[in-house]
């Protein structure tokens, strides 16, 4: 039985230590192959052997740790309910904290609070409700963590606020006036606010998934026995015939049976130019039909559709981990225990060694507990990856995961296959030259003779010219046809002897060739194949055939070079043809005459020189090379490209997608580094300050509450970032 992969929604995680603990415990279960827990998305991706362990067993183990776990399909309502409950608890805590805020203003000479709010008993009554109702979640979280043999941020908040609260209670019972109820009350309120803002910010990072999900159509017009009916999309089966009217979204993947229209596929490919669709063409669910009505036959539905595959790919990528996260996870797993040791040491040094009062020792200890926060470190990578991968998806670029995004920013050599990647991969007629022939007075006359003469030929170039001719004129079947090996064909068309082939063919039949050397030389220098045509022993013209360069190729190559990438073109073509195309593209490094195995050697050559290598190919013919490269980018020729073909998949054929991928990769890694610096600097500075008594508990709680928000907001900058204007 093959391994099964499932995504679970996890509730009750309050910090990176929670995520690390769940991941560690689940991975230890017999039958679990791999597990990743993402704090930012609040999801766990688990791969397991269903014959050894069931999904219900995994969920039960997570719940035993004190967290909630449900299948991802049932999460939206529960998560919304949880967020609403969090909002209610914050508002409750905030309203009861208002007197403490007002009393603090009075300390600064601002008469903003009635005197009654300074009464210790009144403060005790208010603080008790905040501590054990609004703050109960921290006690529950701390208990569950300690019961599971770990420690998380809940432990720090519960210990820190309890220290301030119970010390104040003890002071009242001793008849003292100096209490710190406002410290515990306001810290709980601020931490709840910070978590609320963090949750809202994390929700924004998931916008891409929601936007993609909104592309799913709910209803469709199905035709059955000539009658049209509106039915839910969920009831549509493969083979069903549907009608898509102008202005409507295509409900499922299908093939056009009849009708013509233009379809906007930008929501999937990132390319803004609409695509013409007619009989036989493929359309994709979620795209927008613009002008004409289309009748389509359903080919793929639900999760098997292109949109379904894209949503799954983005979900998995956003839930994955980049290698840089391993360091953060390692730090987070030991962070809270270390802080607890530091807190005990702080109390011991202040009280026993320095001889400070119990009040001072307890307050400094509480400050150490309240200022430490592993969350910024735990959120730095996943928050940025979610937004970066989401922005890439909006541009038709799909990363398989965080590891591929991180690896791409390290590569400096881009090997690009020519055919199908830099070029369209399908030769076409590019130029026509007319000779001086009485029967050939126009391009259509020449194309008629060429298409008719080549009608029975199986040569690839012949098929290109026949297809071109059939679009322009009505060709005829030749009365006589013969193929001249290595030279071309001889045919009789409407009683005229026609020769179509290379120069040697015409010379062999004694056809005089004059005044064409300059034109032919220019075409051959440009890498075009030249086809000579003679009718009744006299030269009639020349046709040039070439695999044309994609419109976006030159700009993409130029952009990559400006980003400091070495661009290398690989092709099986001759050296002269390859160099001609490379000149048009602005590529300096060319590897020509390659066999498929030579592409692997080229990748290994650059890798041995210490270069990170990105391979860009069509995802099918270049599969071995894409796997061998540090990062493989598969460029699609349509939305039906296999998304699993490489580390990065471009749904559209626009090569600017490669540039987008590199820029987004670099920008995302820059944001991650910035967040790491902030997280390490925050804890590296505030914890010593707290231990030295230079930070108040209230200030410590405030900075801790908003430290995670800062990291998530930094990641959200990627949503608004114009990557083309960012200097790397």
TrEMBL record:
UniProt keyword Chloroplast present: no
GO CC aspect terms: plasma membrane
Xref: Gene3D superfamilies: 3.30.70.100, Calcium-transporting ATPase, cytoplasmic domain N, Calcium-transporting ATPase, cytoplasmic transduction domain A, HAD superfamily/HAD-like
InterPro entries membership: ATPase_P-typ_cyto_dom_N (IPR023299), ATPase_P-typ_P_site (IPR018303), ATPase_P-typ_TM_dom_sf (IPR023298), ATPase_P-typ_transduc_dom_A_sf (IPR008250), ATPase_P-type_domA (IPR059000), HAD-like_sf (IPR036412), HAD_sf (IPR023214), Heavy-metal-associated_CS (IPR017969)
GO MF, one annotated term: ATP hydrolysis activity
Transmembrane intervals: 89-109, 121-143, 155-173, 179-197, 330-353, 365-390, 675-692, 698-718
SUPFAM superfamilies, per database record: Calcium ATPase, transduction domain A (SSF81653), Calcium ATPase, transmembrane domain M (SSF81665), HAD-like (SSF56784), HMA, heavy metal-associated domain (SSF55008)
Catalytic activity annotation: Cu(+)(in) + ATP + H2O = Cu(+)(out) + ADP + phosphate + H(+)
PROSITE patterns (alphabetical): ATPASE_E1_E2 (PS00154), HMA_1 (PS01047), HMA_2 (PS50846)
Ranges of residues in domain HMA: 4-70
Keyword Transmembrane listed: yes
GO BP term (any one): copper ion homeostasis
Predominant location: membrane
E.C. code: 7.2.2.8
PANTHER family: ATP7, ISOFORM B, P-TYPE CU(+) TRANSPORTER
The protein's name: Copper-exporting P-type ATPase
């Amino acid at each position: 039985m093959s391994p099964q992969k499932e995504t679970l929604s996890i509730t009750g995680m309050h910090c990176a230590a929670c995520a690390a603990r769940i991941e560690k415990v689940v991975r230890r279960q017999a039958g679990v192959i791999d597990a990743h827990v993402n704090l930012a998305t609040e999801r766990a991706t688990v791969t397991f052997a269903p014959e050894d362990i069931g999904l219900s067993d995994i969920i039960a183990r997570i719940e035993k740790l004190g967290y909630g776990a449900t299948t991802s399909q049932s999460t939206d309502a529960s998560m919304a309910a949880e967020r609403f409950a969090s909002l209610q608890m914050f508002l409750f805590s905030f309203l009861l904290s208002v007197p403490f805020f007002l009393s603090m203003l009075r300390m600064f000479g601002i008469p903003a609070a009635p005197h009654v709010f300074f009464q210790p008993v009144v403060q005790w009554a208010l603080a008790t409700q905040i501590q054990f109702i609004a703050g109960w979640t921290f006690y529950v979280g701390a208990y569950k963590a300690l019961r599971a043999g770990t420690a998380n941020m809940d432990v720090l908040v519960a210990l820190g606020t309890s220290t301030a609260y119970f010390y104040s209670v003890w002071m009242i019972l001793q008849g003292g006036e100096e209490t710190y109820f406002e410290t515990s009350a306001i810290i709980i309120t601020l931490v709840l606010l910070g978590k609320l803002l963090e949750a809202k910010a994390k929700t924004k990072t998931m916008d891409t998934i929601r936007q993609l999900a909104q592309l799913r159509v709910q209803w469709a017009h199905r035709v059955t026995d000539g009658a049209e009916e509106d039915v839910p999309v969920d009831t549509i089966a493969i083979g069903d015939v549907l009608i898509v009217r102008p202005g409507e979204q295509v409900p499922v993947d299908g093939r056009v049976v009849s009708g013509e229209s233009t379809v906007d596929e930008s929501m999937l490919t990132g390319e803004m130019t609409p695509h013409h669709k007619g009989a036989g063409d493929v359309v994709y669910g979620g795209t927008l039909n613009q002008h004409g009505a289309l009748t389509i036959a359903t080919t793929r539905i639900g999760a098997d559709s292109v949109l379904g595959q894209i949503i799954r790919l983005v979900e998995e990528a956003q839930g994955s981990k980049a290698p840089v996260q391993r360091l953060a996870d390692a730090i987070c797993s030991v962070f809270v225990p270390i802080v607890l040791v530091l807190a005990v040491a702080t109390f011991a040094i202040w009280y026993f060694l320095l001889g400070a009062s119990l009040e001072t020792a307890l307050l400094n200890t509480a400050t150490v507990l309240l200022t430490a926060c592993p969350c910024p470190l735990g959120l730095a990578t996943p928050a940025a990856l979610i937004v970066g991968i989401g922005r890439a998806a909006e541009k038709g670029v799909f990363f398989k995961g965080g590891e591929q995004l991180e690896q791409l920013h390290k590569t400096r050599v881009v090997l690009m296959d020519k055919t199908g990647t830099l070029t369209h991969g399908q030769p076409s007629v590019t130029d026509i030259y007319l000779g001086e022939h009485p029967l050939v007075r126009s391009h259509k006359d020449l194309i008629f003779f060429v298409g008719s003469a080549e009608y029975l030929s199986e040569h690839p170039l012949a098929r290109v010219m026949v297809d071109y001719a059939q679009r322009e004129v009505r060709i005829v079947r030749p009365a006589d046809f013969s193929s001249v090996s290595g030279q071309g064909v001889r045919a009789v068309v409407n009683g005229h002897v026609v020769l179509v082939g290379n120069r040697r063919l015409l010379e062999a039949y004694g056809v005089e060739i004059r005044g064409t050397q300059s034109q032919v030389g220019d075409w051959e220098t440009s890498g075009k194949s030249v086809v000579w045509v003679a009718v009744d022993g006299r030269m009639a013209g020349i046709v040039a055939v070439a695999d044309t360069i994609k419109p976006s190729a030159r700009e993409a190559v130029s952009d990559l070079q400006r980003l400091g990438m070495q661009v290398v073109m690989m092709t099986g073509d001759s050296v002269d043809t390859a160099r001609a195309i490379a000149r048009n593209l602005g590529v300096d490094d060319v590897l020509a005459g390659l066999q498929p195995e030579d592409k692997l050697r080229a990748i290994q050559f650059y890798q041995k020189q210490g270069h990170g290598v990105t391979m860009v190919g069509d995802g099918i013919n270049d599969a071995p090379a894409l796997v061998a490269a540090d990062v493989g980018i598969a460029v699609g020729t349509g939305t039906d490209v296999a998304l699993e073909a490489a580390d990065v998949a471009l749904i559209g054929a626009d090569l600017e997608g490669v540039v987008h991928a590199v820029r987004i990769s670099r920008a995302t890694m820059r944001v991650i580094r910035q967040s790491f610096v902030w997280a390490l600097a925050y804890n590296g500075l505030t914890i010593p300050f707290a231990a030295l008594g230079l930070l108040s508990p209230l200030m410590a709680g405030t900075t801790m509450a908003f430290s995670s928000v800062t990291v998530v907001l930094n990641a959200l900058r990627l949503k608004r970032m114009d990557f083309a204007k960012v200097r790397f």
